[in-house]
Write a structure and sequence with these properties.
This protein is mostly helical. Helices cover 47% and strands 0% of the residues. It has 3 helices and no strands. The longest helix is centred in the last third of the chain and has 16 residues, at 45-60. The radius of gyration is 12 Å and the shape is globular. It starts with 12 loop residues before the first helix and ends in a 14-residue tail after the last helix.
Length: 74
């Protein structure tokens, strides 16, 4: 994805909260495997969890966020 391809979308507080909790499922009850993470276009489970932490930090700080590699699969 190139910088020119990025689209900024303002998320409401409820949308941010939903995304925050949904992302947290991957490091909790959903317990994503390496195979599933790779199928969602991540390098593996560790990469998915790192991207989850990055995105959750950005959401908390109300920063602009960009798509994750497997965003369409989430």
């Amino acid at each position: 994805m190139q910088p020119d391809d990025l689209v900024e979308i303002e998320l409401s507080t409820d949308e941010r909260r939903l995304l925050w909790w949904g992302l947290g499922e991957w490091s909790g009850p959903a317990n994503c495997s390496d195979a599933l993470a790779i199928a969602m276009d991540f390098e593996g489970r560790a990469d998915l969890l790192e991207q989850e932490r990055r995105l959750r930090s950005a959401l908390e700080a109300r920063e602009v966020v960009c798509a994750l590699p497997g965003a369409s699969a989430m």
